[in-house]
Amino acid sequence: MAARLRTFAIAALVVVFIALRVSLATYRNSTSSMEPAVRAGGWVVAARWPQPRRGDVIVFDYPSTPRTRFIKRVVALPGETVEIRDKRLFINGRKLDEPYAQHRDPQLFPRDPKLPEPYRSRDQFGPYPIAPDSYFVLGDNRDSSSDSRYLGTVPRNFVLGIVVWPTSARRPK
User: Fold this and answer.
1) Residue range(s) defining the domain that contains residue 50
2) 17, 58, 92, 106: least surrounded by Cβ within 10 Å?
3) Tally of domains within the chain
4) Distance in angstroms (rounded) separating the CA atoms of residues 105 and 108
């Protein structure tokens, strides 16, 4: 009886381990664009097979930079229209409350097509309609983030996972 119970327990642990390896993945954040939510150099655990919602932090590849992992927050969903006015985010014409957004640079750049990037799109952007099966993502550290304002939207099939646990400390080397 004890041997049978031990065999069952080991089999259950193996099944749980395999299920976790198949459904979760770890990724390293290489930039400060998501601080303080995800530290530069920190690791995140992400659930695979995602269906992102607004506010989710996701891990993805941009089509223009394959094999480079990005970690950003989903702020606009397929079919919505996004606009940034004076550093404030609007979705379908309504201001979005974003307690996670950080604006560390007090400088406000005007809407001016003559400004070079990243200044032209940083504080004033859009309105921009989001295509079906795509997401508009921004870093929480808005003044220092390469995101959908500059690189475009993220197609659903480039989303690798939704962050379920950002580690608070850097992983030891």
Assistant:
1) 25-170
2) 106
3) 1
4) 8
